[in-house]
Amino acid sequence: MFRPLSRRMCLLVCILMYMKAPTHELRTNIVLDADLVDEATRLTGIGTRRALVHEALRALVENKRRRPLADLRGKVKLGSGYDYKAARAGTR
After folding, report:
1. What is the tally of structural domains in the chain?
2. What is the mean pLDDT of residues 72-85?
3. What average pLDDT does the structure give for the chain?
4. Which of 13, 31, 56, 64 registers the highest number of CB atoms within 10 A of its CB?
């Protein structure tokens, strides 16, 4: 048989039940271009708008992180004997 909870214990249980673990999610309302969403869904096969927005944000961040490397094109001096084709083939 269970003992009834004290008032203090009941309050503690209620507080713990309604506390949420901290998350890194943000809630927002956004207006999306329906044609663009339809095309993105068709091209990616992603079925929900939430997953589609997450994928778009992930791709944007990945692209922006890669961009500084592209800015170095033509600015890096390689050694005079460096053969990039041999290096790619693993025969360097």
Report:
1. 1
2. 81
3. 81
4. 56
Cβ neighbours of residue 79 closer than 8 Å, sequence gap 6 or more: none
Per-residue pLDDT, 46: 94
Structural domain boundaries enclosing 56: 24-72
- The answer to whether residue 45 sits within a structural domain is yes
Query: Is 91 inside a domain boundary?
Result: no
Q: What is the DSSP letter of 48?
A: S
In a domain, 90, yes or no: no
Structural domain contains residue 4: no
Annotate the chain with DSSP letters as a single string.
Answer: -PPPPPHHHHHHHHHHHH---------------HHHHHHHHHHH---SHHHHHHHHHHHHHHHHHHHHHHHTTTTPPPPTT--HHHHHHT--
CA–CA distance, 50 with 37 (Å, rounded to integer): 11
- In the predicted structure, residue 92 carries a pLDDT above the cut 60: no
Give the SS3 label for residue 5.
coil
